[in-house]
């Protein structure tokens, strides 16, 4: 059974994914991005609800981003995270014991962290978070501008909630305002293990999880209007410190036995 060696949570737009990728490469850890399991967990939640005879429908983009206030959206995201948390635990339990795991995502709530595990929370300032989220596409809605403002406010409120929970439990909260590089922020996160075996296979696993999630997203009503032709897949060389990504379409990835950057 795999055990998470560290958990990286925090607000959307705080650089969690980039910082965690750096840490995974430096320490030879398997990266477990919870967002990449989104549609797997949606499907499993639907199957569970069906067995219990409960309704379980995903909201449309208009319902999600226009039909609720930002406060309601933040509360709904937290409730959904708690509802799906058993799937995260089950997926971690199914992993081999090596290499160790680092888990990342806004779904990492401080009060859900197992006793004894290390956790760090990155939270963007409102100004920095707005500048990042303003550039991120949303699914098509009837009122794109209002949907974006609702999303920015929802993520600000959710970030405040995470900070309060983290400080109540003594976890480090790292502010992000755009003045430091991801490498500098990663340097504040210490106490992780040294590189171990099995890293190349772990990187292939990570890419498969991402590809499966992208395929499901592209088939959903929540896809963005302008779909990218290629996606960044992490190099599977397994070398310590390698954080290089390689652009591949989904068919190209599926036809490639091993994704390697040039010269790796």
Description:
This protein is α/β, with parallel strands linked by helices and 264 residues long. Helices cover 45% and strands 13% of the residues. It has 9 helices and 7 strands; from the N terminus they run E-H-E-H-H-H-E-E-H-H-E-H-H-E-E-H. The chain has helices spanning 16-27, 38-52, 61-65, 70-93, 126-133, 144-168, 182-186, 199-218, 250-255, and strands at residues 4-10, 30-33, 101-104, 118-124, 173-176, 231-234, 245-248. The strands form 2 sheets. Strands 2-3-1-4-5 form a 5-stranded parallel sheet. It has a two-stranded antiparallel ribbon with strand order 6-7. The longest helix is centred in the middle third of the chain and has 25 residues, at 144-168. The relative contact order is 0.20. The mean pLDDT is 89.
Question: What is the chain-wise order of helices and strands?
Answer: EHEHHHEEHHEHHEEH
Task: Tell me which oligomeric state these chains represent.
Answer: single chain
CA-based gyration radius = 18 Å
How many helices does DSSP assign? 9
**Strand order in the sheet with the most strands:** 2-3-1-4-5
> What fraction strand?
5-15%
Mass-distribution shape: globular
């Amino acid at each position: 059974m795999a055990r998470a060696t560290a958990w990286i949570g925090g607000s959307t737009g705080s650089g969690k994914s980039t910082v965690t990728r750096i840490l995974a490469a430096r320490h030879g850890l398997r990266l477990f991005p919870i967002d990449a399991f989104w549609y797997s967990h949606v499907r499993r939640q639907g199957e569970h609800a069906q067995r219990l005879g409960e309704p379980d429908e995903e909201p449309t983009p208009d319902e999600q981003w226009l039909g609720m206030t930002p406060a309601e959206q933040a509360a709904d995201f937290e409730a959904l995270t708690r509802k799906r948390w058993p799937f995260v635990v089950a997926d971690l339990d199914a992993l081999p014991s090596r290499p160790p795991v680092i888990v990342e995502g806004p779904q990492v709530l401080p009060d859900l962290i197992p006793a004894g595990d290390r956790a760090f929370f990155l939270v963007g300032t409102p100004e920095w978070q707005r500048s990042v989220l303003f550039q991120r596409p949303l699914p098509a809605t009837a009122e794109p501008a209002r949907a974006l403002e609702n999303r920015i406010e929802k993520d600000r409120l959710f970030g405040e909630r995470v900070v309060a929970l983290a400080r109540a439990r003594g976890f480090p909260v790292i502010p992000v305002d755009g003045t430091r590089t991801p490498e500098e922020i990663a340097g504040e996160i210490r106490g992780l293990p040294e590189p171990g075996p099995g890293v190349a296979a772990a990187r292939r696993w990570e890419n498969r999880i991402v590809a499966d999630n992208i395929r499901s997203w592209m088939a959903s009503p929540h896809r963005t209007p302008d779909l990218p032709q290629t996606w960044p897949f992490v190099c599977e060389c397994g070398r310590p410190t390698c954080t290089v990504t390689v652009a591949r379409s989904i068919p190209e990835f599926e036809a490639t036995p091993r994704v390697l950057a040039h010269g790796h």
